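Replying to the earlier thread about multi-chain prediction with a worked example.

Input:
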Amino acid sequence: MNFPTRCLSFFCFAFLGVWASAQEVVPPNTDGALIRSIATTQTKLVKIFGASAGRVQGYGTGIIVSSDGMIVTSQGVYLDGPQVKVVLHDGREFVATILRRNRTLQLALLKIETADLLAFELSSEPVGEKGDWVLAFSNAFRVADKDEPVSVMIGTIALRSFIDAKLSERDVAYKGDIVLIDAITSNPGAAGGAVTDLDGVLVGVIGKIINSSETNTRLNYAVPSHLVADFVSGKLEETTEAAESVMAKPADLGIKLFALGGKRNPAYVDRIVDGGPAEIAGLVTDDMVISIGGQKIGTVKEFEATVKNLVPGEEVLIIVKRGTQLLRLPITPREAK
Amino acid sequence: MNEKTTHKFICVVALTLLFANSIPGLGVAQEQKTDGQQIIDQLRALQLSSRAFRAAVAKVEPALVTIESFGGSGAIAGRIGGIRQQGEGNTTGLLIDDAGHIVTSTFNFIQRPPVITVITADGERHVAKLLGKDNTRKLCLLKIDNPPQNVALTYSAIDEMKVGQWTISIGVGFGDSNPAISTGILSAKNRVGGKAIQTDANVSPACYGGPLIDIDGQVMGICVPLNPQSQAIGAGVEWYDSGIGFAIPLKELGDMLDRLKAGESIEPAFLGIQPLAGEQENGLLIQEVVPDSPASAAGLQSADLLLSLNGEAITDIMKLKQILSRMESGQTVKLKYKDGATEKEHEVDVILGTPPVPKDQPQLEPPEIR
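Result:
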């Protein structure tokens, strides 16, 4: 799975062309813009080696973000060992210190003691839109070592979207804008690598491997450059969601669901509590709840989770299926007793 | 220049510039003269293609629908019918007419949801009815009432498709109503018993049921999971995002779609013989006949030598599989064989059956609709 067939595509598209022209003895200084852009970007990537833990790999990729040796990489166990080794494109090796980590973005900022490095400029605006070609640079599978350049792939931006809240919270607490790409970057060691546009401008940093619960497939994505910029400049503060929810009282709709068969069953109404919000809204027994406040209700479990987060007194739209009809009804939750 | 011609033009320019370099003797002379210019154009050509991708996607977006499933056998944890567990998210379909028919993939209903709703591109939600399904192509048909009207799609004919041309797969499975796309090229035609085309664009649960389109925005096919080695309901999903993706062309399917509209269920064909391993001359030697199978009903026995099916010579097991993969359950075929005992040749009519349910596949019944 995720076999990098894309690499092959890229070979077909670009390298064959270059090889063909190289055989026509084209002087090296007339390399194409795309080829030059790739060569330049390669010098801004680093290979990172550290501790491994069981089957979790002890290596990753990083991008240079300042000429004096600041490096952004992805959070991972390879940063937790006694020593983190950074290898530059020219083979020079450094021991890095970890300056800062961000749990929500799963990024880490490293520092090596050197100067005069070529670094990515971090745009404060989003770079790239759906359908744009992008290049992905990473040391996936630890293919490169010493002075070997990291691997490059080509793909397009699949979608700029919001990472779904249903992703495993343990891995990613981040719920912001992400850049989904169609190059396969969800492989060991790729996290912390660069996604750039064809001119070498940073689109984002390759994220760690996560599974989308929507599709039960791996996501290939990058954390957008403007968020990386905020992280590097120290502007980004960890958001504490707990603070918001402390004040909220649990809500109730006065609906008892048909509970036989477990929490993965559809949310069928078994009983309407007398005088409750559901009765006032006009729901009846055997209605099936489809959506509350724009949130799809697929199961009894999702119903419970969604209702818990409603604000008492704040009207929302509930959509129910009655026979073959869909009814849209305003409903005002009350405080749970 | 009208819109379509413009896109074709961009496409041709992009392809020409992309591939000119890789074909020896083509464009080389010019390249040496205006080298810098030529290569900058290569990058420019890629950038132009991005604009063409977006324009193509915009043409089919009005027909894209988001499918929501409620309930079903999702309560069974882990793998279903020998395949990866399906995601929890919405899936993709394509509205194909003003009557409200939606083509999508059977993969999206593996959990047999008793209730299906559809959100059309105008944001309206509809209760959908599942009509027929074609399990040989992993396609099925939904029907909604009061669909958006005049959603005009154009379809690409298989004969016009060229291996190497741009392809774009489209789906809403990542959970955003704004569809995600993946670009690639057409890798092959005439795959999986001639039913499918193949692409290296990403094809996964995020786009199963969604369209694979060309650079003009014409629908080339519907993305489905397929594996030529297996007829299992979820087979093929293990190759998701691998660069090996399949789609079922629609333009040539008129008859099949009519059958699905009528609620028919099309199942893969099953003969019921276990061939002897290794190669034989002139045919395929039967080691064992599956009891109660179409083969046993037709009187075939072990040691019989299969010669041809509908006049097409059976040279080995792969050839037999290939022929059968073009057929469907219930179809009557002419089978020619040589009797192992009498050495006489016979021709019999066999009504093809349905493969038995694999042992590891739980018998999933949808919960009753209350």
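Residues 254 and 275 of chain A are 8 Å apart (CA to CA).

Feel free to reuse this layout for your own posts.
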